[in-house]
Amino acid sequence: MKTSILGNKDFLGGLLLVAIGAGAAFISRSYPMGTLRQMGPGFMPFSLALLLMGLGLLLALRAPHDGEELEWGGGLRPVLVVLGAVLLFAQVLEPLGLVLSSMILIIASSLAHTPFRLRETLLLSVGLTVGVVLLFAYALEIPFALWPRGL
Amino acid sequence: MELFSNLALGFSVALSFHGLLYCFVGVMLGTFIGVLPGVGPLVTISVLLPITYNLEPSSALIMLAGIYYGAQYGGSTTAILVNLPGESSSVVTCLDGHQMARRGRAGPALAIAAIGSFIAGTVSNVVVAAFAPALSAWALNFGSPEYFSIMVLGLVTAAVLSHGSMIKAISMIVLGLILGLSGTDVNSGTYRFTFGLPELTDGIDFVVVAMGMFGLAEIIANIQRPEAREIFSSKVSNLLPSRADMKASAWPIARGTALGSILGILPGTGTTISSFMSYALEKKFSRHPERFGHGAIEGVAGPESANNAAAQTAFIPTLTLGIPHNGTMALMLGALTMFGIAPGPQVMTSHPDLFWGLVASMWIGNLMLLVLNLPMLGLWVKMLAVPYRLLYPAIVILSCVGVYTLSNSSLSVVLLAVFGLVGLVFVKLDFAPAPLLLGFILGPMMEENLRRSMVMSRGDPSIFVTRPMSVAMLLIAAILLASMLIPMIRHKKEEAVASDA
């Protein structure tokens, strides 16, 4: 298959590994390396980071031979919505409490699929929130603030 | 006999009120979540893990084992009724199981899967009880160099036997090893890869990694896929297999059990490979191989028994050596550490109630599945009819709240999203995420044993090749790696692990 190297899974994956490896090597450079006899905290991460870069390079170099073309099926909407909903939950959980944040998370993550059904989603958010509160706050007795602060 | 007194201890733990309760809750929850299409044991366990966090270690482990079996059984149910494997080991079950369902024989297919799993579970349980003490006694003689080498061997086998590119599998292991090192270095107190965040000084929680890379990433990938499901709910009638079915299944179950029990112990193999091999074996043994793929009950009975046997004996290396060889076992081991139990050969002697309680509860869990699941089938079928758009928000909220409770910090939830994205990117690029989890769990242990070995040898790396056990394991690892360069063997392997979706 002749396609652009830039759309090649192995090439992109290889580059990603090289980048991660370089980042990890750069960070672990500041940790003491120690000696072979007394290895410091930097030895293992630094060596592994170099190994990861090597593997990435190998993968990228072999990409024209055995890599396939990347297909990003399904669009970006589910990705952005689900991850966004989770990040939003992280922001609102402590100030708003478990009940409201759970409802927000359920409604927000339901936007990932089309078409959006308002009534169904609202019912779902109420039902699941009741379940979550019963499970975590009551059955497992985890101390959660259920309602917004100051209420 | 020591074995009997050990088993008696185990059953006293497992049959206690708490033991039975948590086993039951685990089996039910596991099946409940595991039945959901596209949700395999790995996702189920990681999503439900936080729920066990507040329990005592032995109750928590019993519940986790229940979740594990439940999830696996739930996966087979989905495979048979919907033709959607929840995990790679039920891919084989889809082949004939779903064909049986199409012919209105979903009941017997499900029943034989349960019966086969139960028989396999019983036999392999005895294997665990018999072999684990011997292996752990042997492993107690291991020094750091042996441990380091056996981990190398475990990781290499996992990479060699994983499906797809071996370079990619090794890369994921190495990335996992690096991530596993994050947090405070035990020897020097240095903070590594904490990005200045105080929450990360204890390292990244493995549950966050597992939930993000398997749970969230999987959910997103599933939403992206258009929903196309065929459910044979109306046709689940006459549950019990006929006498002819039982007769046809007897040998496949026996062979599957034997095969699975052996393969489960070997590092890097496990449930997927044993079910594939069992299927191939039954096809060879059958007088009518042409029936396979068209609803042959042997094609369900053999692989289902094999994968359950392997699932059980996989606990042997995990619990005796502290070395997991697949993603699910890595999670189990991570859970042990979470409960403050250092994995390794000493677990069996230092926590006999925990080890034997787990062994006994696995058997009871299997029995519960057999007794409870067939009558509850109607409920699972109804679950399958629930559209995905209503299911995934439930998994998302369970994951988010569960992750938060691990450390009461919102940062864990943010990390969940980060690992969800990472998992998704790697899946799109054809990297399987399971090896990363293996590396993640083994990272700190490998480093520790490497350091200790080098202290022992005063900085001479030849210590790994001068100690007989250590050199033997490294040699096997090297041979395995080298054998993948031979095209013929590589093709055979690709056939064996093919369609491992």
Quick summary:
With 151 residues, chain A is an all-alpha fold. Helices cover 66% and strands 0% of the residues of chain A.
Could you characterize the architecture of this molecule?
The complex is a heterodimer of chains A (151) and B (501). Chain A folds into two domains: 5-66; 77-139, no CATH class. Helices cover 66% and strands 0% of the residues of chain A. In chain A, helix 3 (77-110) packs across helix 4 (118-139). The termini of chain A are far apart. Chain A has helices spanning 9-28, 43-66, 77-110, 118-139. Chain A contains four helices and no strands. By secondary structure, chain A is an all-alpha fold. The longest helix of chain A has 34 residues, at 77-110. In chain B, strand 1 (183-184) and strand 2 form a beta hairpin. Chain B has one domain. The longest helix of chain B is centred in the first third of the chain and has 34 residues, at 106-139. Chains A and B meet through helix 1, helix 2, helix 3 and helix 4 of A and helix 8, helix 9, helix 18, helix 19 and helix 20 of B.
If you average the pLDDT of chain B, what whole number results? 84
Q: So what's the oligomer here?
A: heterodimer
Overall number of structural domains of chain A: 2
According to DSSP, the number of beta strands of chain B is 2
Number of helices of chain B: 23
Number of helices of chain A: 4
The greatest inter-chain interface is formed by: A-B, 70 and 64 residues
N to C succession of SSEs of chain B: HHHHHHHHEEHHHHHHHHHHHHHHH
* Major β-sheet annotation of chain A: none
Helix/strand structural class of chain A:
mainly alpha
Number of domains of chain B: 1
| Helix-strand sequence of chain A | HHHH
Q: Taking Cα atoms only, what radius of gyration of chain A do you get, to the nearest Å?
A: 23 Å
Mean pLDDT of chain A: 88
Trace the largest sheet of chain B across and list its strands.
Answer: 1-2
Structural class of chain B, by secondary structure, is mainly alpha
Name the poorly predicted regions of chain A.
none
Instruction: Report the portion of residues of chain B in β strands.
Output: under 5%
Helix content of chain A: 55-70%
Number of strands of chain A: 0
